[in-house]
Write a structure and sequence with these properties.
By secondary structure, the protein is α+β, with helices and mostly antiparallel strands. The protein has 13 helices and 13 strands. Strand 1 and strand 2 form a beta hairpin.
Length: 465
């Protein structure tokens, strides 16, 4: 690595205390979709202190913001997330499941690391621009509500990312590798059934049960599963079962559906089938149903030019190695998790290498609103092994590792690799042109939002009854 690279990447090590404190603060103050007010305030204060120009309330979302530095092009974007998940409260660095008292949510997807690493990369690129006097702009985006809210989908719909030459993101994981394939597109809809209340014993004939309709919808969707492609997915949660009185015919019930397909283009027809099942359930029960569009996310589009560039940079940046303390913790956590997470490996607690590029497309079965950014501009997604091998995502095991020093070191590694990738693209503008040529070949002429203009962001808390 050149001295110049060493100079600007050293900013990440110099800011290690600041970045670790940020990660810990976000972990200690878990907040769910579109309610991340404490996290947002902490980030904004930090961005201002580090010399970034801050923009708030992006796309009209109170917890969406950005910090930029520099001038002109290329405009290099780093995507930061910081929202938590419900039901994953957990004591940090505990070797067994231990929910914290009076805390409902937790960072069971590692977003405390994610946003921290993205900010670290932005700080390093800022240092490069200052030292080199090069033309270019670095932007850190505070992106709320990846979990259940598709914050980036609303931001992309409203043009927040249109300024970008390319975007870079990462995610905590069990392996260190570059995502070469795709994730699933999705749409989330809240189905509300309304019927007529009556005495279930005295006058059942006058009642029209919304709960019956909801259950019939769920049964219908179960039969639909037999007639959809293997890589489609359907999930649901009953958010309102109508109450706690079995002697009342429930007049209202709600169910939240999340449906996924490999590509955006398949979603509309798939959702029409689900909508028709809801309508049929209402017809069978003499109730009424309304469908409230909650959010959607596009399938992720990989960019091989960015992928190759990042992999080149990875050959010049050493991957951290776990300490004996890290190894001891990882082995014991795996042993304690043999029932709830049998994939965890006490013999090899950590993946200590960058996986090589394969050139093979892989279809993932999760989803992320990063997909919407990838349909606006060339985008790259790095995974870095902040968790022990076999750790299941969205689990207490993820939350408990959220304060580990190993995860913090890997976060700084991810920051260096992302920063180096951005700088190499800046120094080789022909690669930016190549990345855009590939983008146009794969995506087409531009981005078509999946979220209608009249849909507004819905906090998870608003869906709870």
């Amino acid at each position: 690595m050149s001295e110049n690279k060493l100079s600007y990447l050293s900013a990440i090590d110099e800011k290690a205390g600041l970045l670790d404190a940020l990660s810990d603060y976000i972990w200690e103050h878990p907040e769910t979709a579109f309610t991340e007010t404490k996290s947002t305030a902490y980030y904004i204060d930090l961005l201002k202190k580090e010399g970034f120009k801050v923009r708030e309330n992006l796309a009209g979302i109170k917890t969406a913001f950005s910090g930029s530095f520099g001038h002109g092009k290329p405009v290099m974007g780093f995507l930061g997330e910081f929202d938590a998940l419900t039901g994953l409260s957990q004591e940090g660095e505990a070797l067994e499941k231990a929910p914290l008292p009076n805390v409902e949510c937790g960072h069971g997807c590692g977003h405390n690391f994610l946003g921290t690493g993205a900010l670290g990369a932005a700080i390093a690129v800022k240092r490069y621009l200052e030292e080199s006097k090069a033309e270019g702009t670095v932007v850190f985006y505070g992106c709320p509500a990846e979990e259940g809210g598709s914050g980036k989908g609303f931001m992309a719909r409203d043009g927040v990312f249109d300024e970008l030459s390319f975007a870079i993101t990462w995610h905590p994981a069990v392996q260190t590798k570059i995502l070469e394939g795709s994730m699933l597109a999705n749409r989330q809809v809240l189905y509300k059934f309304d019927g007529v209340a009556s005495h279930a014993g005295g006058s059942p004939e006058t009642g029209r049960s919304a709960l019956d309709a909801l259950e019939l919808m769920n049964v219908g969707v179960q039969f639909l599963r037999e007639h959809i492609p293997d890589d489609y997915r359907i999930h649901y949660a009953i958010t309102d079962a109508g109450g706690y009185s079995p002697n009342v015919v429930q007049p209202h019930a709600e169910v939240l559906y999340l449906c996924r397909t490999p590509k955006n283009e398949y979603l509309a027809d798939f959702m029409e089938r689900v909508d028709n099942i809801a309508k049929g359930a209402a017809l069978m029960t003499g109730t009424k149903v309304t469908a409230q569009f909650i959010k959607a996310a596009s399938n992720y589009v990989s960019n091989s030019v960015l992928n190759r560039t990042m992999y080149e940079c990875s050959q010049e940046i050493e991957v951290p190695h776990p300490t004996e303390e890290d190894l001891a913790f990882g082995r014991q956590l795996a042993l304690n998790s043999k029932d709830s997470a049998p994939g965890m490996n006490p013999d090899k607690p950590y993946a200590e290498e960058m996986k090589p590029l394969t050139g093979v497309f892989t279809q993932g079965h999760g989803s992320s609103d990063v997909g919407d950014v990838s349909r606006v501009c060339p985008t790259i997604w790095l995974s870095a092994a902040t968790w022990t091998v076999g750790t299941p995502s969205h689990s207490w095991q993820v939350t408990t590792q959220g304060k580990r020093t190993w995860g913090k070191r890997m976060t700084r590694y991810a920051a260096k690799l992302m920063a180096a990738t951005a700088v190499r693209m800046l120094e080789h503008p022909e690669r930016i042109e190549e990345a855009w040529a590939e983008y146009h070949e794969v995506v087409g002429d531009g981005y078509t939002p999946l979220i209608p203009k009249d849909v507004i962001p819905t906090p998870l808390a608003a869906l709870k009854k």
